[in-house]
Amino acid sequence: MSAAVREIDTPRGPARVTRHPATSGAPRGLLLLGHGAGGGVEAPDLVVATGAATAAGFDVGLVEQPYRVAGRRAPAPAGHLDEAWRAVAEAVRGELPLVQGGRSSGARVACRTAPATGAVAVLCLAFPLHPPGKPERTRLPELAGAGVPALVVQGRSDRFGIPDDGPGRRVVLLDGDHGLKKDPAGLAGAVRDWLAGLPV
C-alpha cells in the first residue's frame, strides 16, 4: 500500500501528514515523526526511521509543520510548533497506541507535547541537547519531561551535544554528526529493535 497524504487544519495553519502503512499485518501502533527546524520530512534519518518502523509493524506519519507547508524555512516559535503538533496528533491518532518523535527540533516538540498527546514513548533523532558551544544552555529538562520511555539516537560528533542515559531513556551513539547520515544500518537497527520491545 502506498503512502497517503493528508492536510490537517491546526490553530497555526494547515499541517501535512504523509502516512506510510506497516508493511505486514495490522499495525501495532502509530509513530508520528517531525522534521528539523530548517529541513523537511525527506531528511535521510527520517527516511531510514520510517522504513525501520513500518518493518517493525508501525504505521508512520511524517508531519510537516504549518510554516513548512506555507513555504517558509524559518521555524515558528516553540509554542506555535507545539500547538500545531497537538492538533495533528489529535486528528490522526485513532485507536492505535501513539509513539511520537522526530529529528532535532522535531524531537524537542515530541518531548514537550508527549504528556498532552498521551504518547506512550518518544523517539529522538539527533536531539539538540544545547546550542553549539553553549553546554550551559541545556535542554535536558525537555527530554526528561516527556515522562515516557525514550530512545535517543545521536552521532558521536554531534556539535549540539550528547545526552546521557537516564530513567526510561536509552541513548544509542552512532558514527557521524548531527545529520545521522553515516550509519543508516545502525540507525535502522536501533529504531527497529527499540520499537519491537515496546509493550504496545
TrEMBL record:
<dbReference type="InterPro" id="IPR046879">
    <property type="entry name" value="KANL3/Tex30_Abhydrolase"/>
</dbReference>
<dbReference type="GO" id="GO:0016787">
    <property type="term" value="F:hydrolase activity"/>
</dbReference>
<keyword id="KW-0378">Hydrolase</keyword>
<protein>
    <submittedName>
        <fullName>Alpha/beta hydrolase family protein</fullName>
    </submittedName>
</protein>
<feature type="compositionally biased region" description="Basic and acidic residues">
    <location>
        <begin position="1"/>
        <end position="10"/>
    </location>
</feature>
<feature type="domain" description="KANL3/Tex30 alpha/beta hydrolase-like">
    <location>
        <begin position="29"/>
        <end position="164"/>
    </location>
</feature>
<dbReference type="InterPro" id="IPR029058">
    <property type="entry name" value="AB_hydrolase_fold"/>
</dbReference>
<dbReference type="Pfam" id="PF20408">
    <property type="entry name" value="Abhydrolase_11"/>
</dbReference>
<feature type="region of interest" description="Disordered">
    <location>
        <begin position="1"/>
        <end position="27"/>
    </location>
</feature>
<dbReference type="InterPro" id="IPR026555">
    <property type="entry name" value="NSL3/Tex30"/>
</dbReference>
